[in-house]
Amino acid sequence: MGIFDKFFGNKEPVQNSVRLMDENQFWKIIEKTKFDGNGNYEKQQTELNKNLSKLTAIKILEFDNKFRTLRGQAYKCELWAGAYIMNGGCSDDCFSDFRDWLIGQGKEVYGDAIRDVETLVELEYDMDSDDWEGLSYVPRAVYEKKTRNEMPEGIQENFEITGEEWEEDDAELSSKFPKLYAKWGIE
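Below the sequence we write its predicted structure tokens.
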């Protein structure tokens, strides 16, 4: 046993997989970390780190694969419009972070938003204090700590946007997304 192993434990071997974590197990972890983080997104990231650290490296990769799959499924024009309205603008990086945050809200919120972006009006969101970035970085960090190697690629998420395009125009956004615009739109 080397000195590094004495302080940090034995490292796990690097493994690659395109398998997805079981959906129920994935959402159970998300819901637990949201609950344990008391709805605070930064605390949720800390809780996710703790929960994933208990898993094997391959299970962490499977979690990441499921996360990427869900983020790819949420690559929809309507969701981007929702993020744009909620945040007063939204770049492509911002939209990636928004999809991470949306997954972190749990199965029901995610599923509802995928079906109808206007369901997001039911959420409490403060664009001045909430930050969407972070949740997707946790699996990679935990995996690399556990294996002391970079995480393999796993699956490639979908980067082909779907849905009806929209213009960055207040009249169009308020017409297409009246509930979201009424709550967060630019005055």
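The chain has one domain: 9-157+168-184.
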